[in-house]
Design goal:
38 strands; single chain; 11-stranded parallel β-sheet; alpha/beta
């Protein structure tokens, strides 16, 4: 959509440096933007690109204004302001509300007239949608689900039976919410499946990434708090509880019955064993394996940074020798 610089400034509560009537139609990087596009800068390493940018307007802090050759919007937090401005600029044209003729709708469903149900979607019996929901192409909503207002479920997502989803939730393509948890009991050499009779509860304003899976509880429920943001290809096992406003990056795996506090961050590739807890404000760096509970907020890491293979092989051998070396040193200290 077209927005004037004055409109953007008002929306962002920003100070304008330049032509308030300039019209902006989209976003791009400092390197690639043209006179009709918006860009932003928040780090000194992008200064060379700023100095030669051809963007129509750049969002920046006052510390960069002397280097900016084009119109600018001055804010305290350029990265956050860009996120808001991009959403404001890229608002899609409203789609026609209603149920596509090819959609399959079950019995006793509550679907307000403000909802959009796209082609080939399947909504089973006894499903309730809030106002202004969108169900994407070929998505499946199984029986008994309750979905809050303004929620968007993208194409080919699957919401399994009796899942409860809050308001203003975004679920990306390929996500599966409420599949069976991984529960089996050993019977000799065989495994016997344990029925998973809980459900999944997603709070308001949650985002669920593409191909992420959130398993239903075995007895109780798997609970994702308000404002939680989950990236692509994350696995959350049965009976996990995640506190409000926690963010989890791609390829993280969380085993069953783990409890994660509020305002935590788990970077890419993190692993959590089951039945542990993390207090509020815990931040786990990429590829960390968490094997016990964390009872104090802060930043935690594990693993070994990459190095040349020849060096890694030598260090791997030495790592195996650490216990023997410790015992040798300890004996000498005792003597």
């Amino acid at each position: 959509m077209e927005r004037s610089l004055a409109e953007l400034a008002l929306y962002l509560n920003a100070e304008v440096q330049g032509d308030k009537k300039r019209v902006i139609t989209g976003c791009a990087t400092l390197d690639n933007a043209d006179v009709n596009q918006l860009s932003f800068i928040y780090d000194n390493k992008y200064l060379p690109a700023l100095r030669i940018t051809k963007a129509g307007v750049v969002i920046l802090s006052s510390s960069f204004i002397g280097e900016c050759p084009v119109d600018a919007l001055l804010v305290e937090n350029p990265y956050l302001a860009y996120a808001k401005a991009a959403g404001f600029l890229l608002e899609s044209q409203e789609e026609s509300v209603g149920i596509h003729p090819s959609a399959n709708i079950g019995k006793n469903c509550s679907i307000p007239a403000s909802c959009i149900v796209k082609a080939n979607a399947v909504i089973a019996d006894n499903v309730s949608l809030g106002e202004n929901c969108t169900i994407g192409y070929s998505s499946v909503i199984e029986s008994g689900c309750r979905i809050g207002a303004d929620t968007v479920i993208m194409s080919r997502a699957t919401i399994c039976h009796d899942v409860i989803i809050g308001k203003r939730v975004l679920i990306h393509s390929g996500a599966v919410i409420g599949g069976d948890g991984f529960g089996f009991a050993k019977d000799g050499e065989c495994w016997v499946k344990i029925p998973q009779i809980g459900t999944v509860i997603l709070g308001d304003n949650t985002d669920i990434g593409a191909n992420t899976t959130i398993d239903r509880g075995a007895l109780g429920d798997t609970v994702i708090g308000n404002g939680v943001k989950i990236d692509n290809q994350v696995q959350i096992a049965h009976n996990v509880v995640i506190g409000d406003n926690t963010a989890i990056a791609a390829c993280t795996g969380i085993a069953g019955s783990s409890l994660i506090g509020k305002n935590c961050t788990l970077a890419g590739g993190v692993g959590l064993v089951g039945h542990i807890s993390l207090v509020d404000g815990v931040h786990i760096t990429a590829m960390t394996m968490v094997t016990s509970s964390i009872n104090k907020s802060g930043v935690y890491s594990s693993g070994t940074p990459f190095q040349k293979n020849s060096d890694w092989l030598k260090n791997a051998v030495r790592f195996k020798q650490l216990n023997k070396l410790f015992k040798t040193i300890n004996k000498k200290q005792i003597k």
